[in-house]
Amino acid sequence: MIDYQVDADGIATLRWNVADRPMNVMNAESTAAFDAAVRRVLEDPAVKGAIVTSARPEFVAGGDLDLIRGIADAQQSFAASGPVSATLRRLETGGKPFVAAINGTALGGGLELCLACHRRIAADNPQAQFGLPEVTLGLLPAAGGTQRLPRMIGIKNALPYLLEGRKVGPAAALAAGIVDEVVPADQLLARAREWLLAEGAKATVKPWDAKGFKFPGGSPQTPGPTQLFFGVGGGLLQKTQGLVPAPEAILACVYDGCQVDIDTGLRIEQRQFARLATSQATKNMIRTLFYAMGEANRLADRPRGVPVRSYSRIAVLGAGMMGAGLAYVSAQAGLEVVLLDTSIEAAEKGKAYGAKVMDAQVAKGRLAAEKRDATLARVRCTTDYAQLAGCQLVIEAVFEDRAVKAEVTRRAEAAMDADAIFATNTSTLPITGLAEVSSRPAQFVGLHFFSPVEKMPLLEVIRGARTSEETIAHALDFAKRIRKTPIVVNDCPSFYANRAFAMFPYEAMTMLGEGVDPVLIENAGRQAGMPMPPLALIDEVSAELLHKAMKQLRADQGAAYREQPQDHVLTTMVERLGRLGRKVGQGFYDYPAEGARQLWSGLAEVFPRAAEQPTVDEVRERLMYSQSLEAARCVAEGIVSPRDADVGSLLGWGFPAVLGGALGQIDTVGSAAFVEACDRLARRHGERFEVPPALRELAASGGRYHPA
Ligand code: NAD
Predict the structure, then answer these.
(1) Helices marked H in 214-306 — which ranges?
(2) Ligand 1 centroid to 59 CA: how many Å?
(3) Which of 100, 150, 178, 650 could connect to 114 by a Cys-Cys bridge, CB 3.0–4.6 Å?
(4) What are 12's strand-pairing partners?
(5) Do 632 and 692 touch, CB atoms closer than 8 A?
């Protein structure tokens, strides 16, 4: 785990080499081995100092989350984090100099190890990233990160790394004072040795262990940092609505821990960690954001035995909002892209979208101009279907209109290679129906992207009734190639994400129609941790779009269509009032040219307030449980797996990660309590809250969607 060598000058080299894991991670075994190596350095009189480095491309990638997953109670959690922190403190105060020779990425515990060393020298490695990303999984840096970083670079400078999990490369780390030197990779070890021999002996006492230590930028009680804590604390609450425990715990570590000596600060950090590691919110976040998403990204559900398809050239039909984004992300991933529209101008306009996004990155210095030019050069605009020859995949993103899609499908298939896949990016129309015009329905699949394509990480791969398993496997290969997180979804109107998410705006409109105060609705949505309150959200996507989808469903189902409780609100807003949403400057809100949106004052007249108003908890329950219930129906109908349902809800529509996802919410509340609440809601508000039998059985047996 830790290779140990001592040279003739008495310099020990400790090389991290956790060979049984895909990366160097800190777990019980590796940290015990590291502790033994540190003791050896300190106890061997022949050793003058030590270099800590790695035998692998990365330095140390962080803590092993398997360790945290196994923690059952606060005591175990205290015991899990304590030894690492103690080892680093021993290293720091043992009287011999340690230098971190950081050859590659150092994240989480890996960076904390570096912070404990007496000097940090980084290789000029463009791949290397430094940061403390624990917060993004609901955790906190528990090996001294919350204590050492503020003492090194000041509270104000440290907070973005601690609270947002900011990651930086070597040059930015040097500028921030996180590392002391950046040197060419081939000189890293020589320079570390040189420093140890020349300066090491003078540098074994850290500033915070020396008399008269002055906190850079002031300690927490001084005016600057005090003001800062007020501002940051307030901003945090506004952002998280108090639902996310990790950033609050981190702030407490910094505020409390930086007013006392470092050993007490480290104990404060450990206590906060113990509380977090056992919290349901953190367990939910780790399960979905780390394990479930990891499985989805590794294509765990890819049909077995199908050779991997490697893509080099694809085509996108329709260069509108979605087609433009699709062409851009595909070209960015190194693929040749044929971008086809009805006129060359329309296709060029789509290509220009990617150019605009990249121009902004070039202007900010985040992208080299040559890279942008090379990406753009891979996109070829055309109106000619003959160009589809040689493409392994053709994705259609034309108007959401069956006749237009049918025409495009026929023309494309006539020109495509025999083994190429045809994919549709429809957002509502079932794949099986669209595939009826296809001459090779086994190679017809849904690839449902989200807007804006370059920002949204989720891809729903939709299996039509006749889609082959080989096509599903190859569609998943494409997702991986363009670095999207795929979930596999069986066919139904609106598929999974849009179908379950729609309950949020629908329930909001239903309540508005019942006379619930819109301020109450919006506040409840915000307090529940949704990224945007529901009526504001409808304005963003435009009520017109939802109205169109409703009309389509009505036309498709004919006499079988059952009026939905939100339909009359939609019709009123779109047909009677023309308040289509933000794009026309008026919807549920007014959008003044200057200043923030405001709820439209006319809403009270159109939807008169009921005399009796529900509590905010009742409103929140309706907004949130309706989504989970629809997700549970999708699982019961075999549309999506529980794992993909949760991943899809976090990545597709920003469902609160602290709940673990739409099904995670049911597990968090407890399936029996959830069913009881839905039964109550069904009695009061109607059959849309009726629980599917599979969920009722799960609750009756005390079951969960995910193991505890
Ligand atoms: P859009 O109106 O912005 O673009 C459609 C493009 O298709 C236009 O450039 C149009 O010129 C072109 N087009 C129309 N008929 C054509 C034909 N016969 N041949 C070639 N090109 C043709 O639409 P959009 O928002 O990009 O949506 C495209 C598809 O993606 C729709 O099926 C939509 O449901 C789906 N979708 C949209 C979103 C979204 O948020 N907008 C999200 C997911 C999926």
Answers:
(1) 223-240, 245-257, 262-277, 280-285, 293-297
(2) 45
(3) 100
(4) 6, 50
(5) yes
- The minimum-distance atom of ligand 1 relative to the CA of 424 is 32
Residue 57 is given by DSSP the state S
Closest residue by Cα to atom 10, ligand 1, is 318
Beta bridge partners of 396: 317, 424
Residue 507, SS3 per DSSP: helix
Question: Whole-prediction pTM value?
Answer: 0.93
Torsion of CA 639, 640, 646, 652, to 10 degrees: -70
Residue 12 Cα, ligand 1 centroid: separation in angstroms?
62
Q: Is 652's C-beta closer than 6 angstroms to any atom of ligand 1?
A: no
**Whole-angstrom distance, CA of residue 124 vs CA of residue 148:** 24
From CA 478, how far away is CA 330, in angstroms rounded? 9
**Mutation to probe ligand 1, out of 317, 322, 348 (largest number of atoms < 8 A from CB):** 322
- Cα–Cα distance for residue pair 362/414, rounded to 1 Å: 40
Parallel, antiparallel or unpaired: strands 444-449 and 421-424? parallel
Q: Which two tokens stand for residue 133?
A: 């990303």
pLDDT band at 68 (very low <50, low <70, confident <90, very high): confident
pLDDT, residue 590, reads: 97
pLDDT digits (tens, 9 = 90+) for 536-553: 999 999 999 999 989 988
Ligand 1 binding pocket mutation candidate from 344, 395, 399, 428 (most atoms within 8 A of CB): 399
* Mean pLDDT for all residues in the chain: 96
568 is a catalytic site residue: no
Ligand 1 neighbour 494 (Cβ under 6 A): no
* Domains present along the chain, CATH in parentheses: 2-203+218-278 (3.90.226.10), 313-491 (3.40.50.720), 499-700 (1.10.1040.50)
Q: Could you identify the atom of ligand 1 that is nearest to the CA of residue 428?
A: 34
Mean pLDDT for the stretch of residues 479-499: 97
